[in-house]
Design a protein that fits this description.
- By secondary structure, the chain is of the alpha+beta class.
- It contains two helices and two strands.
- The longest helix has 9 residues, at about 35-44.
- It is globular and about 25 Å long.
- The relative contact order is 0.25.
Length: about 45
């Protein structure tokens, strides 16, 4: 299972937030990584 924020493999129990698995509370606070939004901004 990979962290929804940083993409690192989760070791041990994940931190769940909004049905997404995170590797730590810090990543859970940042929220899921959304690659699509960043790519759209670069194209403009």
């Amino acid at each position: 299972m990979k962290c929804a924020s940083c993409g690192e493999k989760i070791k041990g129990d994940p931190v769940w937030k909004d049905d997404e698995p995170y590797c730590s509370e810090e990543c859970a606070d940042m929220g899921p990584f959304e690659e699509d939004e960043e790519e759209e901004e670069e194209e403009k």
